[in-house]
Each structure stands twice: as structure tokens, then as C-alpha cells.
TrEMBL record:
<feature type="domain" description="Secretin/TonB short N-terminal">
    <location>
        <begin position="63"/>
        <end position="114"/>
    </location>
</feature>
<keyword id="KW-0472">Membrane</keyword>
<keyword id="KW-0732">Signal</keyword>
<keyword id="KW-0998">Cell outer membrane</keyword>
<keyword id="KW-1134">Transmembrane beta strand</keyword>
<dbReference type="GO" id="GO:0044718">
    <property type="term" value="P:siderophore transmembrane transport"/>
</dbReference>
<dbReference type="Pfam" id="PF07660">
    <property type="entry name" value="STN"/>
</dbReference>
<keyword id="KW-0812">Transmembrane</keyword>
<dbReference type="InterPro" id="IPR036942">
    <property type="entry name" value="Beta-barrel_TonB_sf"/>
</dbReference>
<dbReference type="InterPro" id="IPR037066">
    <property type="entry name" value="Plug_dom_sf"/>
</dbReference>
<dbReference type="InterPro" id="IPR023997">
    <property type="entry name" value="TonB-dep_OMP_SusC/RagA_CS"/>
</dbReference>
<dbReference type="Pfam" id="PF07715">
    <property type="entry name" value="Plug"/>
</dbReference>
<dbReference type="Pfam" id="PF13715">
    <property type="entry name" value="CarbopepD_reg_2"/>
</dbReference>
<dbReference type="GO" id="GO:0009279">
    <property type="term" value="C:cell outer membrane"/>
</dbReference>
<comment type="similarity">
    <text>Belongs to the TonB-dependent receptor family.</text>
</comment>
<dbReference type="InterPro" id="IPR039426">
    <property type="entry name" value="TonB-dep_rcpt-like"/>
</dbReference>
<dbReference type="InterPro" id="IPR008969">
    <property type="entry name" value="CarboxyPept-like_regulatory"/>
</dbReference>
Length: 1162
């Protein structure tokens, strides 16, 4: 296939897309339902049991049957030969061959026995029994079956959950509904209020898989974990992805220390690519969504611009299915080599109009480890404060210049202010004694720990307020849901906030027995103000708070500018800024408007054949502006940068499917063949201005120097795919899939190798408990195994040269080659082979469940850069060479330890272990640097640190300056008693191999208590913050030896003699700060991640208010660090979401949140 012939031309966009989707959705809602004859049926069955016939009827026309299983199983098989017959004819034919009678009520058919009806003729005067059936949430259950036990009498609930039937007083009524536990009550004259609890086993039997296909879990040959929307909403988070932490085995969730506006990093079953993306593909209602990260923190600082998944409102989520194995995600091809997360949004249902309102409010407070800083010694150097140092300088001047000693006070008064400012970043002064001394701003104040509450005084209490309103309903022909959400987040950083608005519309319509249409559209509007600066010291308010000496109250900096209009600094160092000036005078803002939507139509030619088509896309328009104001210490003239990004993707898809069963359901087949075309685009225009002409007027165009740039890219993938699923007796399953992707990025003139790749998979499952008579305490036992191959897509423009413009000559721009990597015509996607075997079991009447998986994932042909001669003018050439290996285990244990009429305890434990290893980089390269720390560079005296990939080592190891040690591992000290450096060595591993989540919920009548404990074990982190705090004397670890010197524990330079030389404390700790090894910590943690205590009000209390449900819950998140061993900072405080994890540098403090959720339904 020639991709070039079918690709759309550059510049073609889909601007009418949003309006088109909205028009379709509204048009479907307005469709007029029209009178039709009873839905026609085509049934050719011979000697088939009645239950199987009911299943076929339900599949064809959607009618539901309610019956007693024991009654049906006693009936003989039936034979039918009907073509386009009405339902009534089919039911009459069944009735003639059996002892069954039928009663239709709306979309439900009640089935009872003629024999039992005769045997149970009324012996007592019947009474009218009335009642209402509701879920535990308080919502009315429509269509629940009410059956008088042992009789043919029954009915179903109406749109409000109400029912009425005739029964003898004292007779037992059985109430049942799919997905809920059956309830039995005695008939009486008082109205019955029946509350049904969800059947955890039944609700868990069907999950959403690839392409949005719903499947029974028992039919799957791979591991899929589904998280319900209610679990994601129990304790809300700003970024939907971070809410998965601790909830899914095999999923490693990370979030940089960037506050509520930050991005997230999700890794499923380990990192598979050395340089490429390792995050999963996100699918929303069958449409792949863009998860672009718009900027993150690097070596020299920056801001976290957020990502794509953070735009999604959790209140719109019905479920999230995590497809972990290669087989699970194989149908998505090259884009799902790292797994996929399939999001299904809420939809309307048949019934009266329902209105739901949700209000959530949380208050966040910092969790700062203040005791890890020292508060005993103030600003100064070598044990002297500013005045003591000024005294020494003044005496020297008196001696050198011949001034009279009477000048001493005058000289001290003149010298002290400058010294106080210069040394305010160093806290190696004298002990705080309360005496009045000169401070950094030239004012005398008591020499006390006045800055002990600096973090509390500077950061504000953050809060999050969300309001969501949804209206849903529908008829048997059309169902709809429209929802609006308003989310407002005020971060702990002053003057920093985010506003997000979501509007979603979902419509589905069954136009006739053949055609069904579904459409959805989601609009997201985001407005962010002052995302926090992170990483490096410049423009990072967090860093200044750490740097301030113990005797400096941060509130003295609130005036922000000095008398000349310049930034008012706390020290003489321009790179340590005023935190209030950074928060209020610096300005960055961004806005994002986004539309995600799709329309889908399915036509059922016959009960077995169908054709489904879908078109959808994700469009994002983002604008941002960043202003460094005039007067900023590090950039006096100021600067401005503005950017506009328009990016997104579209997908068109068609599937032809066939499903059938044979030999009385002995065999069944489910197969489909599909086609997909996908296009992505990214257009960015940037303008920059340097130096403002008029201070105070800071806008683009008012600069001394201006520049601009534009970049564009687009790519396409065409695909065909298919699946064949075979089953035998619903106990043996075989699934085969295949997908072939054609890449525009690999279609280049002169290229000899193929521009496409094929991804197959095979999986099988065997339900042992269906094949053999198992002990009664083992109701379910299944084994499964699968193999799959997937790949990682190649980015556009890697096969050819790209060009750009640089500075001008004679008024004309100069063109140049815009890349430093040699293009490679033979480049191809990486390939990932994944294997897994698993065991699923349930015990003790389904009270205990086990889901165990062992997997292996091998990546080959990963894209890496190999070295070339510097004479070529290039830095390297991009080739397929890298190999990465992952293997591990996942375990999910579920249990219902206690279950009574009024009390239920549900418990779940998930555990995973992943071992990774870099197998190969290139023939000539065995290691390369993935990330470099700020420390150790550009005048920083702390130790250098790097994240490396090294052959034979785990993915992403931490390397840095080490202690020099003797053969016994003892630290060696030089003649001055200072620790010696041992060179760059491996110091830790950046990725935690173990993850664990432990959740529990307790339900007693209307009360619910739930909590989640989340843990990561085994990863390491290099803390630049801790290193700097040693260098500047702020760390509590620098207290020992302040008065008498520090005696290092170890040996002298000869490697044998014990060290007996005491070193000056300031010199010792500054030397220690230069050794990276000291500041690499075990990042393991155990946290109380979520806690919720709620109450659902009884119907009898709220019915008078017109409500169908009302619940209120007190919630908390990150309430308690049960265990962590990292001083000063949170062990999760990563620098960014890139592959180079394992660094921390002056991020936002961790917070705990407490609030409430209010949910009302009408």
C-alpha cells in the first residue's frame, strides 16, 4: 500500500468538527419516536433449551426476561422456525411446547409456570402489596423483578422504582435485578421500602476491553482491571490519572512536585523504551485522546504545563479499564505498546428525567518537615554573624588605614548592612542569642529564629471547589445525558490558580431493530494563572524559602521592590529571588480550549452480522504567555514570550463483525475485521521579546529585541485489524488478533525498507471449574495465557532533513539544517513481545478472590542515538538498536470478611513487582545520560548527579559523586579531616520495583467508611534540596560539631588509620554537599492515600423534599505518611514526568487535603 497516495495535504484541518458533532447529538435527541409494529424476530432453533432462546431474543430486540431458573430448567427443549415474526408469535410457540406462560410489561417479559399457577390458586383473600425498590445509593431501580415465591404471580418496578401486586399476607416476595443481590421479604399491608445491594461478583463479570468492546471477564486470556467511576470520585483529585495510585496492580503512578496544575506519569508493567514515551494510550469512548505535556521542569528549571488526561472531569467517568498486557492492547497496534487505559463516560438510561448534582470542597495544607531544618544558628559564616564579621573587617581597616579606634562603631554600622545581605544565604553564623544585630535589610532586630514559620506564612491554604450538574433520561428509542462541571483550584503558591469547565453530551438512539447511533461530544475550557516555577533557584519561590536564614522572616519581603523599582532581594545573590516578587510580579498564564467527540453507527444486518462505523477526534487550542517583569534581579530589562499551539488528532474506523453459537451453544464464535485511519497534527507559533522599552508596560511589541518562530508537524497511520474468538462450552476460550499499521512517518522517497509492520497476538483461557467437579468451596477456577507483539510509533521527520531559519544577513533570514541527528531511512518502530500467564480463582461462595499474573516483556529495535564523527557536523545518528527486558508478577486479592444483613466489609489488596534491565544500547555504546541534575554545574558546589541507562543495569540508575572508601567500605578523610571523593559511581535505582495498594470499605446501614493505603518500595531519589541545605548550613544534619568541629567517622587517606582530625563545621558540611552519595535516599513510602466517611440518607427522610438520593461524605487525601525516610521533602517529589525519574529539586511541598462531597439526585 502506498501511503503517499492517501495522505491528506498539510494544512488540512477539521475546524467544523466540533460543530458537526454537536449538530449530530442534538439531532439525534430530537428524533421523533414513531409507532411501529412489534419488533420482528428471526429464530431457527432445534431442540434448544429455553434459556438460550431467551438470550437470542434479547440480543435481537433488547427484550428482557425475568424468571425462576429452577422452573426454566425443568422445561423441555424447544424448536422454532420463525422469520420476521412478532414477539407474541414467538412466545406463543414456546408456550405451546412448554408449561410456561408469559406476561409482557413494557420492555420486560415475566415468565412463570402454568402448573404452579394451578397449584397455587388463592386459598386466602389476597391483599394489595405496595413498595419501592432502591439501590443502596438511594436511586430508584427501574425494572426490578418482584416475584411471589412458589407462585406465578409477579411484577416489575416502574420508572420510580415503585410496584404493586396482589399476594397473601405473609407470603415471601423475591426481589431481583441484574447486578444486585436478591432480597426476600414478607408481604404485608404496610408499604415496603426495599434496599438492594450491588452484587460485587455480578458487577465484576463484564469489563470494557479494546475498541470499547464489553466482554465477560471469564472469556479474557489476559489481565484487565476495571476501576469504577464511583471509586475515582470517592476522593477527588485535580488530575484524573493520579487517582489510580494504589488501585491497580502493575500500574506505577508518579506526579511531579508541581501542585494541583501538574501532570502525571503512568507506567504499566515497567518502562519499555530507553528514549521514547513509556506512558499508555488513553482511549475515551472509543477515541484515542491526546496526552501531550505542555512543558516540564528540566536541569535549568521551568514550569509544568499540565497534560491531556488532566482535562477530563472524573464526574463524567463511568469506568476506567486498564489494559495491561500486550494482548489486551494489541488491537491498538503501534500506539499501545505501553498498554492502554480505556475510559467510558456516563450515559443516559431508559426512564424519567434524572437530575444529579454534586458539590465537592477540599482544603489543602502543607505537610512540611520543619524539624529537618536547623533553627539554632543564624546567618553568617565560620561561626560569626554579620556584626561579628563587620567588627573584624572594621578592625582591619583601622589597622591598615590608621583610623582612630573611636571610628569602630561608625565603620561597623557602615559595613554590617552589606555583609548581612551577602551572607543571608549562609546559616553558618553564631548561635541565635536574641541580641539586636544588623539584618539583611539594614535594620537591627533580635537575632532569633524569626523565620521558623516561613513556610506557613508564605504558602496559602489551598482549596478546590467543584460543582457538577447532570441531566439524563430517555425512552426505549433515545437515551441522553448532558452534564456541566465547574472546577476551581487555588494552589498553595500565592496568586496561583486553575479554572476548568467541562460540558459533555452523550446520546444513543435505536432507530429500529437494525440501526443504532451513538454520539458524544466533550468541551473543556481551562484557564491557568501563574503555574509555579520549579527546579532551579531562579524564578522558584520554593527555593528561596529554603535558602533564607533562620533569623529572616519571609514577611519582610512582602514589599517586593526597593525604592528604585527593582526586585527587593533577601540576599546579595541575584539568583535567589524574592518569593513574593516571583509570585505576584512574574506572570505566566495559559488557556486551553478542547473538544473531544465521536459519532458511531451500528447496523445489524441479521442477529449474527453487524457493521459499525465511527469517526471522532480530539482538538486542542492552547495559548500561553510568560512575562519576566522589568526590574527582575537576574534579568533587569525583562522579557516576554507568547505561544499558540493547535494540535490534535482524528480517527475514522469501520468494523464488520459476526457472532454466533452452534450445537446448542456448544461452540461459539465472535469475529470482526476492521479498518482505521488516524491523523495527528501539531502547529506552534512563538513570539519572544527581550527588554521592555517602558517599565510597567510589559507587552509584546514594547521590546528592544523581538523574534518569532513557527513549527509544524503532521503524521498519519492507516491500519487494518481483526479478531477471532472461539469458545467451547463457555469454558475454553481462544482469541487471535492481528493488526497491520502503515506509517506516513516511514514513507519517504528513496526508502528501501517497508513502511508497515504487523502485530499479532494469541491468548487462551480454560475454566477448570466448568470442566471438572470442584470442591464446593472453589466455585470458580481459571487458567489463562497469552502472547502479543506490539510496537512503538516513529515520530515524524526522523527519516529526512528538516530546515529552519536563524539570524538575518542583509535583512534576509538565513536557512540552516534544523537538526543535529543524522536522518536514517531504515528506521522502523520498536517491537515489544509480551507474554503472560495467569490464574483466577474464587473461594468460599465467592467471598475470596485471587487474580495472579506472571508476565515477560521484551523490547527490541528501540530507537537510540549512536555516535558519529564530530567532523560530520552532527551529534549522532538515530538507529534501531536498544533492547529492554521487563518481567514481573501481579497479585490481586479480594475478600468479603464480614457480610450480614446490615454490615458488609469489603477488602482488596493489590501487589506488583517488576524487574527491568537494559539489555543493549548500541554496539559501541554501553551507557548514556538520560537526565542531568543542576547541582555540580555553573558554580554550584554540590555534587553532580545523572540518570543513566547502562547495559546490565535496571532502567534509569542514579550515578554521581561517591565517597572514597577503603576495601572495608569505610569512608576516607584527607589531612584536613574532610571526606574524600571517590569518583562517579552507581548510587541508586530511580524506579521502584514494588507497588502495593490496600483498600477497605465498611458499610453499616447507611454509613460507609473506606480507606486506601498506597505504597512503593525499593526506588531511590537524589535530593538536590537536601544537598543545598547542607551546603548553606540550613539542614538539621549540619548541627553536630558547630562549636568544636566535626570528626568524620572513617579512616585517613592511607585507608587504615582511624580518622582523628576534626574539621571546621562549615568546611566539613560544604565538602559533604559535594558528595552526591550522601543525598541519595531510599524513596520507599507507605501512605494513607484516601479516607472517606459518608452517610446515605434514608428514603423516608428525603422523599418529601423531592429527592431520590442524598449522600454526604467527609473525605481526605494524603492524610498520613505512615512511613518514609527522606528528610525535608516528600519521597514522591519528582522533578518531572520524563523517563529520567529519580531527581528532586525545590518542588512544591506535599499537601494533605480534607473536605466533603455532597451528592443529590432528583
Amino acid at each position: 500500500m502506498n501511503m503517499n497516495s492517501i495522505l491528506k495535504k498539510e494544512g488540512t484541518h477539521y475546524s467544523p468538527f466540533a460543530a458537526f458533532l454537536l449538530f449530530v447529538c442534538l439531532s439525534v435527541i430530537s428524533l421523533q419516536t414513531y409507532a411501529q409494529n412489534e419488533s420482528s424476530l428471526t429464530l431457527q432453533v432445534k431442540d434448544q433449551n429455553v434459556e438460550q432462546v431467551f438470550t437470542q431474543i434479547t440480543k435481537q430486540i433488547g427484550i428482557k426476561f425475568f424468571y425462576d431458573h429452577e422452573t426454566i430448567r425443568q422445561e423441555p427443549p424447544v424448536s422454532l422456525n420463525l422469520s420476521k415474526a412478532p414477539l407474541s408469535e414467538a412466545l406463543n410457540a414456546i408456550s405451546q411446547q412448554t408449561q410456561l406462560r408469559f406476561e409482557r410489561k413494557g420492555n420486560t417479559v415475566l415468565v412463570s409456570s402454568k402448573t404452579k399457577q394451578k397449584q397455587t390458586e388463592t386459598k386466602k383473600e389476597p391483599i394489595s402489596v405496595k413498595g419501592k425498590v432502591s439501590a443502596s445509593s438511594g436511586e430508584a431501580i427501574i425494572g426490578a423483578s418482584i416475584q411471589v415465591k412458589g407462585t406465578a404471580t409477579g411484577t416489575i418496578t416502574d420508572m420510580d422504582g415503585n410496584f404493586s401486586l396482589q399476594a397473601e399476607e405473609g407470603q415471601v416476595l423475591t426481589i431481583s435485578y441484574i447486578g444486585y443481590e436478591s432480597v426476600q421479604v414478607k408481604a404485608g399491608r404496610k408499604p415496603l421500602n426495599i434496599i438492594m445491594k450491588e452484587d460485587d461478583v455480578a458487577m465484576d463479570e463484564v469489563v470494557v476491553t479494546a475498541l470499547g468492546i464489553r466482554k465477560e471477564k471469564k472469556a479474557l486470556a489476559y489481565s484487565v482491571t476495571e476501576v469504577k467511576g464511583e471509586d475515582m470520585n470517592r476522593v477527588k483529585v485535580a488530575n484524573l490519572a493520579t487517582g489510580l495510585a494504589g488501585k491497580v496492580a502493575g500500574v506505577n503512578v508518579s506526579k511531579p512536585a508541581s501542585g494541583v496544575m501538574g501532570s502525571s506519569r503512568i507506567i504499566i508493567r515497567g518502562n519499555g523504551s530507553l528514549n521514547g514515551s513509556n506512558q499508555p494510550l488513553y482511549i475515551i469512548d472509543g477515541i484515542p485522546m491526546d496526552n501531550t505535556n505542555y512543558g516540564q521542569t528540566g536541569m535549568w528549571g521551568g514550569t509544568d504545563g499540565g497534560d491531556g488526561i488532566s482535562s477530563i472531569n472524573s464526574e463524567d467517568i463511568e469506568s476506567m479499564s486498564v489494559l495491561k498486557g500486550g494482548t489486551a492492547a494489541a488491537l491498538y497496534g503501534s500506539r499501545a505498546s505501553n498498554g492502554a487505559i480505556v475510559i467510558t463516560t456516563k450515559r443516559g438510561s431508559v426512564g424519567k428525567v434524572k437530575v444529579e448534582y454534586n458539590l465537592s470542597y477540599t482544603n489543602e495544607q502543607i505537610m512540611f518537615k520543619n524539624d529537618d531544618l536547623q533553627w539554632e544558628y543564624g546567618a553568617g559564616s565560620n561561626g560569626a554573624n554579620a556584626e561579628q564579621m563587620a567588627y573584624g573587617v572594621a578592625m582591619q581597616q583601622i589597622q591598615q588605614q590608621g583610623y582612630p579606634e573611636s571610628m569602630l562603631p561608625v565603620l561597623i554600622e557602615k559595613i554590617a548592612p552589606s555583609l548581612a545581605s551577602q551572607i543571608n544565604m549562609l546559616s553558618f553564623g553564631s548561635k541565635l542569642d536574641g541580641k539586636d544585630i544588623m539584618q539583611f535589610d539594614g535594620v537591627r532586630r533580635p537575632y532569633i529564629a524569626s523565620g521558623k514559620d516561613n513556610f506557613k506564612n508564605f504558602y496559602q491554604n489551598a482549596w478546590a471547589l467543584t460543582n457538577n450538574l447532570a441531566v439524563s433520561g430517555g425512552t426505549e428509542k433515545v437515551q441522553y445525558r448532558i452534564a456541566a462541571g465547574d472546577q476551581r483550584f487555588h494552589d498553595i503558591m500565592p496568586n496561583s490558580k486553575l479554572e476548568r469547565n467541562n460540558i459533555t453530551l452523550n446520546v444513543q438512539s435505536k432507530l429500529d431493530e437494525h440501526l443504532t447511533i451513538k454520539a458524544n461530544v466533550m468541551y473543556v475550557r481551562e484557564r491557568a494563572k501563574n503555574r509555579p516555577g520549579l527546579g532551579d533557584l531562579t524564578s522558584n519561590a520554593n527555593a528561596t524559602l529554603f535558602m533564607l536564614s533562620p533569623n529572616t522572616d519571609v514577611r519582610l519581603l512582602e514589599k517586593r521592590v526597593d525604592d528604585k523599582g527593582m526586585e527587593f532581594l533577601p540576599t546579595g545573590q541575584t539568583y535567589i529571588g524574592n518569593p513574593y516578587f516571583i509570585a505576584y510580579n512574574h506572570s505566566n498564564k495559559d488557556s486551553k480550549d478542547r473538544v473531544i467527540g465521536s459519532i458511531e453507527a451500528q447496523y445489524n444486518f441479521t442477529p449474527n452480522w453487524y457493521l459499525r462505523g465511527k469517526f471522532g477526534g480530539d482538538m486542542i487550542n492552547r495559548r500561553s504567555e510568560n512575562i519576566v517583569p522589568y526590574g527582575t534581579a537576574v534579568d533587569n530589562d525583562g522579557s516576554i514570550t507568547s505561544s499558540s499551539i493547535y494540535n490534535g488528532e482524528f480517527n475514522a474506523e469501520a468494523i464488520l463483525g459476526y457472532t454466533n453459537s452452534f450445537r446448542n451453544n456448544l461452540f461459539s464464535v465472535d469475529a470482526f475485521l476492521g479498518w482505521n485511519t488516524m491523523g495527528t497534527w501539531y502547529n506552534q507559533t512563538t513570539a519572544a521579546g527581550q527588554g521592555f522599552i517602558q517599565p510597567g508596560f510589559e507587552a509584546m511589541g514594547s521590546n528592544t529585541v523581538t523574534s518569532g518562530s513557527t513549527s509544524k508537524s503532521e503524521s498519519y497511520i492507516n491500519s487494518i485489524f481483526g479478531q477471532l474468538e472461539l469458545s467451547y462450552r463457555s469454558m475454553v476460550y481462544l482469541t487471535l488478533t492481528g493488526r497491520n499499521d502503515w506509517f506516513s512517518a516511514l514513507s519517504y522517497k528513496g526508502k528501501n525498507s517497508s513502511n508497515h509492520i504487523f502485530y499479532p497476538s494469541v491468548g487462551a483461557g480454560f475454566i477448570i471449574s466448568e470442566a471438572f467437579n470442584m470442591p464446593e468451596w472453589i466455585p470458580y477456577l481459571k487458567i489463562r495465557g497469552s502472547w502479543a507483539q506490539s510496537g512503538g510509533a516513529v515520530g515524524p521527520y526522523n527519516l529526512g532533513l528538516t530546515y529552519a531559519f536563524n539570524q538575518k544577513m542583509f535583512g534576509h533570514p538565513i536557512g540552516y539544517i534544523g537538526q543535529s541527528i543524522v536522518p536514517n531511512l531504515d528506521l522502523k518502530p520498536l517491537t515489544s513481545n509480551a507474554y503472560e500467564i495467569g490464574l483466577d480463582a474464587r473461594f468460599l461462595n465467592n467471598r475470596i478472590g485471587i487474580d495472579f499474573t506472571y508476565y515477560v516483556r521484551n523490547t527490541k529495535d528501540d530507537i537510540v542515538d549512536a555516535g558519529v564523527s564530530s567532523a560530520s557536523g552532527y551529534k549522532g545518528v538515530r538507529i534501531n538498536a536498544g533492547k529492554v527486558h521487563n518481567h514481573g508478577v501481579e497479585l490481586l486479592l479480594t475478600a468479603v470478611p464480614v457480610k450480614t444483613k446490615d454490615f458488609t466489609w469489603n477488602s482488596s489488596l493489590n501487589f506488583s513487582y517488576n524487574k527491568s534491565e537494559v539489555k543493549r544500547i548500541t554496539d559501541d555504546i554501553n551507557e548514556f545520560i538520560l537526565e542531568t541534575a543542576r547541582t555540580g554545574h555553573d558554580g554550584d558546589n554540590c555534587g553532580p548527579a545523572f540518570i543513566y541507562h547502562e547495559v546490565g543495569e535496571p532502567y534509569g540508575i542514579i550515578k554521581g559523586e561517591s565517597y572514597k572508601r577503603n576495601d572495608k567500605g569505610e569512608i576516607m578523610f584527607d589531612d584536613n579531616g574532610l571526606p574524600m571523593k571517590g569518583g562517579i559511581k552507581k548510587l541508586g535505582e530511580s524506579v521502584a520495583p514494588y507497588t502495593l495498594g490496600f483498600s477497605n470499605s465498611f458499610n453499616y446501614k447507611g454509613f460507609t467508611l473506606s480507606f486506601l493505603i498506597d505504597a512503593k518500595i525499593g526506588g531511590d531519589i537524589y535530593s538536590m534540596t537536601n544537598a543545598h541545605m547542607y551546603s548553606f548550613g540550613r539542614h538539621a544534619g549540619t548541627l553536630p560539631g558547630r562549636e568544636g568541629g566535626v570528626l568524620g567517622q572513617g579512616v585517613k587517606a592511607d585507608g587504615v588509620t582511624p580518622n582523628d582530625v576534626k574539621a571546621d563545621a562549615m568546611k566539613y558540611y560544604m565538602a559533604m554537599a559535594g558528595i552526591t552519595e550522601e543525598f541519595v535516599y531510599d524513596a520507599s513510602f507507605v501512605k494513607l492515600r484516601e479516607l472517606s466517611f459518608g452517610y446515605s440518607f434514608p428514603q423516608k427522610w428525603i422523599k418529601k423534599l423531592g429527592m431520590s438520593a442524598l449522600s454526604l461524605a467527609i473525605v481526605g487525601r494524603n492524610l498520613w505518611n505512615i512511613y518514609d525516610d527522606v528528610p525535608l521533602v516528600d519521597p514522591e517529589a519528582m522533578l518531572n514526568i520524563g523517563n529520567g525519574q529519580g531527581f528532586e529539586s525545590y518542588g512544591m511541598p506535599a499537601t494533605r487535603s480534607i473536605g466533603f462531597n455532597l451528592n443529590v439526585k432528583f
